[in-house]
């Protein structure tokens, strides 16, 4: 059984096994709830998408301070959740992954894919602890990109894109809460003479989750009054990013990310059908997740492009868009990055431009 921690600005649906729907929090898109979900693994599942089942979802209790009580009487759900995460990381020496899902994804889908990462993205034989943010994407059949002729599917993409953008402030608020919590823990460790927790924190964003990340970064900059953001992530993995190919060049897009992350790894595939549709039918510019960064000239030296075109094929309905969680070659590459191997020393890839661009090789058949 895996425990996946989460934050979500989806609307709470009381009394349901899956207590979050596809609309915003009743107080608005900037508000979020936190908690954790228990997930069971399905042994020997033939399809990776059937490999996990959601057992339960716990929503952390929270309430404002009673009238006349001091502010300290307020119960903040994230305090208990982050404390529980910290205890698990310290006790078990686990890495931490913050995960933002893509389009056409329900709360349940987000949790199950986070569980997939927890099971496969192991470092030193230990599963990472995963903290997932689930924004209110609409789930449904198909890719949600308008590949069929129905009005619903044609507009699903744009609806999800609007929801991802509107969720930026909630994601930014949850990241700021996490940053503040980590900084306070470090201060407490120093004050009590303890060795600070040395486990690494990584960021993983998939597909339209990268568009949501853009708006979370802009929100964080606002929360910080324009000051430089603290570098809290060891690695940021931008997977099949449905973002502009020049996004890392501009501070009004993803250009602020090097302030938060020591290294940024852009995994892309020109045969990604979901992004081809996004590019050609949605009037978007070239996609970061299809071609990689438009240029490396002027980019932070710790931004890398990893070409997955030869290892992006998975299930028929995945449209070469889900390789980050399914293809063993990509998983093996990520695990080596998380383990701290230098880019030129990672097995299974070849250098296209040493120190900048690489291509993952397919494993021999059989």
TrEMBL record:
<dbReference type="Pfam" id="PF05990">
    <property type="entry name" value="DUF900"/>
</dbReference>
<protein>
    <recommendedName>
        <fullName>Alpha/beta hydrolase</fullName>
    </recommendedName>
</protein>
<dbReference type="InterPro" id="IPR010297">
    <property type="entry name" value="DUF900_hydrolase"/>
</dbReference>
<dbReference type="InterPro" id="IPR029058">
    <property type="entry name" value="AB_hydrolase_fold"/>
</dbReference>
